[in-house]
């Protein structure tokens, strides 16, 4: 039994079927990178794992416990599964510190002082302790995204989902976010990334999944996927990435 | 035939447009300024005659009239500046200095507009004065008898307190009630459908009802039902109830627009951290929505404040009702003018406050 098992998951938006019987399993401490053309369902898959989208078929199990379907305590699930979004989605009316302590104090009922201490420790780690009292729009994109990651980490999730978190960043700010992810990977955080950063995927991924038309078309260790893709679609995708100078 | 090697594309030359010196406009401004000055002198002369006819004679009034009569001479300054600049522009044109001509021409234009702007305002003022003194100061006597205004002021101010109390209570209740209705309208899922339906029906109904009818029905109707609770309520409380019901619907619509204007990604972010629906509303959505809707909410407040004058239909002795009583005793509307002045006095600061709040919020989000 895997840590996270996604079995035959189907997701429809109206007439548009985005996930068409997708299977994927993730082990603890793995970093799984989802790559593929836009619209292939990467983001939708992550949102389904976090319970932000309801699925219409199949099931998802975390530690053997089914986390989809009726009667699941989604609030409890989300304490264990964090997600970081492409557009940061920090709360603009709260300071950085408040952004981070909101969920621990309200959801975990952690005392305010303890939550703040923890948040400051996390901020120190990413070198943003001096921004604790700043508002999100006083930060650069890269800083905002690092705060968003730390906000998810403050809940001590057992699984972190990252949805194209560098896509909205200026090129020179991408590295500071990737460095943080690299550290998390080394510490053994289980992560699923939807990403277009092929170089990064090559470097840190335990497994790379090429998604196409709502299913995992091909999966394997990064060396294999990037150097010897077996399927035609994967080859086409990677060669257009290389053409764009992104690999 | 083109030279070999030359660029095959023809080079387009740009012919600069000749600037105008603006003298026509400048002369127009000057003429208007002089005409307006003559008109002002004439109007002030009329005022003086009306004053004499009514046996009013005072040195300060004469000095004031004289001052107002020479005030429009100030218009000659921008008008003559305009003329001077247009002259400079014409000379520059003759010496083919296009850039200087443009600069002077545009200066002449600006000064001419300056003259016209002030002339327009002055014209409106003169028309108002004429209206005021028309028919032997009929307008002035009807609305602005200083003596009556001064005499009635204390009594009306006392009655105005009733308006303020009604407004404060109704304002508070409709703010809370509106939020409740708005949240009821936005409840998710199928089980909440009947609640959503009722909330929608309520807002639709009360948005379409004139508040004066609601006040009438509640102020007269509820005590008639003989239900003990309503029979013993003072009229003022019923007025508060009526206004709360009406304006609760308006407030609900504003809240709803505000809540819906928060991007769904904020919901996703909050829910993904494990916050419940209620916690998300309370900590993430409402605080952001409120900031955006403070101006429209305050506008509703001001609207409600004005509608407190409607409670006189059920016999509450508010400022307007008091003023009507005084007015019918004196056969003069000056007491009602007092009420108007009071409403203006308390409303203008609020309007300015709305502007300030909007500006402050904008500034805070801009500094980033």
Structure description:
The complex is a heterodimer of chains A (247) and B (368). Chain A is α/β, with parallel strands linked by helices. Chain A has a single domain, classed as 3-Layer(aba) Sandwich (Rossmann fold). Chain A has 9 helices and 10 strands. In chain A, the strands form 2 sheets. A 6-stranded mixed sheet of chain A has the order 6-7-8-3-9-10, with helices on both faces. In chain A, a hairpin with a 2-residue loop joins strand 1 (4-13) and strand 2. Chain B is an all-alpha fold and 368 residues long. Helix content of chain B is 80%, strand content 0%. Chain B is built from 13 helices and no strands. The longest helix of chain B has 46 residues, at 98-143. Chain B is flat, with a radius of gyration of 32 Å. The two termini of chain B are 62 Å apart. The chains are: A alpha/beta (247), B mainly alpha (368).
Present the secondary structure layout.
The complex is a heterodimer of chains A (247) and B (368).
Chain A lengths: L3 E10 L2 E11 L4 E5 L6 H8 L7 E6 L2 E2 L7 H7 E4 L11 H11 L5 H14 L15 H13 L5 E5 L7 H16 L4 E4 L3 H7 L2 E6 L2 E6 L1 H6 L4 H12 L4
Parallel strand pairs in A: 3-8, 3-9, 6-7, 7-8
Antiparallel strand pairs in A: 1-2, 1-4, 4-5, 9-10
Chain B lengths: L22 H31 L5 H12 L5 H19 L3 H46 L2 H41 L6 H16 L2 H14 L3 H4 L3 H27 L2 H9 L4 H31 L11 H12 L3 H33 L2
Features:
heterodimer; A: 247 residues; alpha/beta; Rossmann fold; four-stranded antiparallel β-sheet; 10 strands; 24% strand; globular; B: 368 residues; mainly alpha; MetI-like fold; 2 domains; 13 helices; 0% strand; flat
Short synopsis of the structure:
Chain A has helices at residues 42-49, 74-80, 96-106, 112-125, 141-153, 171-186, 198-204, 222-227, 232-243; strands at 4-13, 16-26, 31-35, 57-62, 65-66, 81-84, 159-163, 191-194, 207-212, 215-220. Chain A is of the alpha/beta class. Chain A has one domain (4-243): Rossmann fold, CATH 3.40.50.
């Amino acid at each position: 039994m895997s840590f996270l098992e996604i079995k035959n998951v189907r997701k429809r938006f109206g007439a548009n079927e985005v996930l068409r019987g997708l299977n994927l399993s993730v082990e603890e401490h793995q970093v799984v990178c989802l790559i593929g053309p836009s619209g292939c369902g990467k983001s939708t898959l992550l949102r389904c794992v976090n319970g932000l989208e309801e699925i219409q078929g199949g099931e998802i199990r975390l530690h053997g416990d089914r986390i989809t379907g009726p009667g699941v305590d989604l609030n409890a699930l989300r304490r264990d599964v964090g997600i970081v979004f492409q557009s940061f989605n920090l709360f603009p009316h709260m300071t950085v510190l408040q952004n981070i302590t909101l969920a621990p104090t309200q959801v975990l009922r952690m005392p305010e002082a303890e939550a703040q201490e923890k948040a400051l420790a996390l901020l120190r780690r990413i070198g943003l302790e001096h921004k604790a009292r700043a508002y999100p729009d006083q930060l650069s994109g890269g800083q905002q995204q690092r705060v968003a990651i730390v906000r998810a980490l403050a809940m001590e999730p057992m699984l972190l989902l990252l949805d194209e978190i560098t896509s909205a960043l200026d090129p020179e700010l991408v590295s500071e976010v990737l460095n943080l992810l690299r550290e998390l990977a080394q510490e053994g955080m289980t992560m699923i990334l939807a990403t277009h950063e092929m170089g990064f995927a090559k470097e840190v991924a335990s497994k790379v999944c090429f998604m196409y038309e709502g299913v995992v078309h091909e999966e394997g260790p990064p060396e294999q996927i990037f150097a010897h893709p077996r399927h035609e679609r994967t080859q086409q995708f990677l060669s257009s990435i290389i053409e764009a100078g992104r690999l | 035939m083109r030279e070999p090697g030359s660029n095959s594309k023809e080079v387009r030359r740009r012919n600069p447009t000749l600037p105008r010196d603006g003298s026509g406009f400048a002369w127009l401004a000057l003429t208007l300024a002089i005409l307006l000055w003559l008109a002002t002198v004439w109007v002030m002369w009329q005022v003086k005659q009306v004053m004499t006819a009514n046996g009013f004679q005072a040195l300060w009034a004469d000095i004031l009239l004289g001052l107002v009569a020479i005030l429009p001479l100030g218009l000659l300054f921008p008008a003559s500046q305009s003329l001077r600049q247009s002259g400079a522009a014409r000379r520059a044109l003759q010496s083919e200095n296009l850039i200087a001509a443009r600069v002077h021409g545009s200066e002449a234009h600006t000064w001419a507009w300056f003259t016209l702007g002030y002339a327009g305002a002055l014209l409106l003022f003169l028309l108002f004065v004429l209206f005021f003194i028309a028919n032997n100061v009929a307008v002035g006597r009807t609305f602005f008898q200083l003596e009556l205004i001064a005499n009635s002021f204390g009594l009306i101010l006392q009655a105005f307190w009733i308006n303020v109390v009604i407004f404060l209570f109704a304002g508070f209740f409709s703010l809370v009630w509106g939020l409740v209705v708005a949240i009821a309208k936005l409840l998710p899922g199928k089980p909440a459908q009947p609640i959503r339906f009722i909330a929608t029906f309520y807002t639709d109904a009360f948005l379409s009802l004139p508040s004066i009818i609601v006040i009438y029905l509640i102020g007269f109707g509820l005590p008639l039902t003989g239900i003990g609770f309503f029979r013993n309520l003072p009229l003022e409380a019923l007025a508060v109830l009526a206004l709360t019901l009406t304006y609760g619907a308006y407030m609900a619509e504003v809240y709803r627009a505000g809540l819906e204007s928060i991007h769904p990604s904020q919901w996703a972010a909050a829910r993904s951290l494990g916050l419940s629906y209620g916690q998300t509303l309370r900590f993430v959505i409402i605080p952001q929505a409120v900031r955006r809707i403070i101006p429209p909410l305050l506008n509703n407040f001001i609207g409600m404040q004005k509608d407190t004058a409607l409670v006189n239909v059920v016999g509450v002795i508010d400022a307007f009702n008091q003023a009507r009583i005084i007015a019918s005793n004196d056969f003069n509307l000056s007491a009602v003018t007092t009420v108007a002045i009071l409403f203006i006095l308390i409303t203008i600061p609020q309007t300015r406050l709305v502007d300030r709040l909007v500006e402050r919020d904008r500034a805070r989000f801009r500094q980033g």
